[in-house]
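Usage example:
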Amino acid sequence: MTSQSETDRPILSLQGIKKHFGGVKALDGVDLDLYPGEVVALIGENGAGKSTAVKIMTGIYRPDAGRIFVAGEEVEVHDTRDAWRHGITAVHQETVMFEDLSVAENIFMGHLERRAGGFLDWKGMRRRAAEILRELESDIDADAAMNTLSVAQKHMVEIARALSHDSRVMILDEPTAALSQAEIHELYGIIRRWQAQGKAILYISHKFDEIFAIADRWTCFRDGAWVGQGRIADVTEDDLVRLMVGRSVAQLFPKPEVTIGEAVLEISGLGNAREFDGISFTLHKGEVLGFYGLVGAGRTEVMEAIFGLKPIDRGEMRMNGKPMPHGSPREVIDQGIVYVPEDRQHAGVILPMSIRDNLTLPLTRALAKNGVFLNDRAEQAVGNRFRERLSIKCASLDQKVSELSGGNQQKVVIGKWLATHPGVIILDEPTKGIDVGSKSAVHAFIAELVRDGLSVIMVSSELPELMGMSDRIIVMHQGHTVRELARADFDAETIVAAATGLGRLQEKRHA
Amino acid sequence: MRKLLRAREAALALIIAGLVGLITLRAPVFLSMGSLDTIVTDGAILSMMALVQMLAILTRGIDLSVSANMALTGMVVALLSRAHPDMAVGLTMALALGLGLLLGAINGVLIAYVRIPPIVVTLGTMSVFRGLVFQVSGGAWVNAHEMGPGFIGFPTARLFGLTSIVWIAALVILIGWAFLAHVRKGRELYALGGNPVAARYVGIDDTHNLMLVYAIIGLVAGLCGYLWVARYAVAYTEIALGFELNTVAACVIGGVGMAGGRGSVLGCLLGALFLVIIFNALPIIDVSPFWQQAISGFVILAAVILNSRGDRPLGKLILRRTEAAPVAGAAS
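Running the assembly step on the lines above writes:
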């Protein structure tokens, strides 16, 4: 099938697609060809630009440069309806559904079918929905309310929705995340039927076993750039890992020479019901401890649990040698642990508040006279100190944080926590989505923290940054810590392999 | 001082000044001492209630039960006064505060602990409180001559030329301002409304704060319930019917953001003042009573539109500005 189709014209072809968001380049001239009856696996690390490419193909984003061809003809994809018209549909990573509507309504929303007179043809749509679901060998009732379905069933509906369009190109973005093993095999069956019908399939996954099971060809992105493509039969898992990582850690990181001190935070056997289990690690004074893993590996969940935002069912935490009870964020802050969350706008800053008030928010209690009345002068002093120390670019501390750029907002978040004089600072994706200049400022800042005797936990999906700044790296996979490496043993391929679960497989094979 | 003259409040003050000017051109009597006295006294209750309503809106909530709370508390103290005409004013006020606090605490428990959205809770308690007014009064009025002389006399008794109702309002507003500007809890309310998730990360507990907000609202509503009944010298089942919407309107006109986390005491007061002027001016300038409600609605909308123009984000600060340059609009 493959050899013959390769001579065909691609159904969908991207050429030299570029896209940037503010100062951040998401895609820098990528190519992608999809042929009828073929499954192409799109591979790349977190942030390599895979999802951005999908969003461009489906009209959610417009490219800044580059051309899109459908069956040899150049087209513009302005929105999802355009994409549907060209026969392109996608099953997105996170299912976006109308929870209170029925399955049939969800499948046809956006392209509701009408009968004569302009009225909606509910009868027809229900029948079609039932047909599609039967075709998927699913027993979901087309009239069921969406919110009564399981996550896996919702995913099936999402796939049914994609099928309700007469599409030639099917894009599956991490389709198996919510599926059981049996359901994954059903999905393979569906994909093979699509292949037989001559559809082109783009399969995005981090899981190599799936890629080797279903894909005919691969295309790899790295840091928003195209790095290669080829036939799956010609490569091994190790080759793909090398392609995904494939860069030298050329950037310079201001890693300071700090003598690592005694244990500060000791975590052993931490686990809860659904998210993570058997998490053990020790953080020392002056150490930068990196956490790597794929998106959804449970890194953020572990940190939130330590910070008192998620339940803990098992395990022990010790701070400075003394047992630390699992408490509220307030109590954890009082223990000297602070957490700088990943999503600044959502969880970091309070946009309608002034810079000063944001900076002093965790401190209001400590600064307040008698613990009750706000101390404006002390707050102003703290504000000035951290404005200078972090070089926050602003006209005045009274300015609202909403007027600052992303990088400066990030500085406010970090400054807010530093003002509490913590012993341990947990940084979750501290440089995500900020420009290069602000990034190196954050790195310099981490260096300064450990020089001052703080201990840092850095959760990051950017391997170069993590390898550049950490003393040790802990790799998580599906809610477990799977690998721990000292700085001398850092190796990008080993780390990525562990994060994709390969390390475990290989260990099992050896055993 | 710089904070007092923030653009949004200054704009509203200008609108009010213009409005007063226009009204006075048409009816000079509007600026007479008697008329101004009425405005200040009428404005007293609205300002207090708008101020506490702002606490709810700041924390992304709303309290629709405020006027029903006022009615129920007002009716209960009026009935008590009928039964005991010689009851001391201090005791009456304490009872009004206590009953109002209790009613507010009911809202607080349902919102903060049972976690039901404020609009749903207070819509429900609004009906319950209003229904209880019928229950306790049997649907009958309590008229001026049935209430004790001290009960009626106190709110309109004068001290240094102003009625005591105005002095009480001034005190409540002063406390409110101090609370929001200079007390840690007040700052926490802004944080909670501005970004509840971020507030949680700095250890601000929303349960206690929400409980506090609705309890304070109830407390002040109870006080205003007594003042209302005593000022108008009559208690009946429809006391302050629909008044909760005036409190919300005053907040919105005063620039309190319905999305939470944004609003000042000064803005809130100007909003209340604006409404009272409109309500009082329309009869004076001979607008037909049939038109009054529609016109006041229209003017409120116009004020909100004018005011919201200052709300649009200025955009991110990307260009580096020098320290000395005046910040355009000084919008923060």
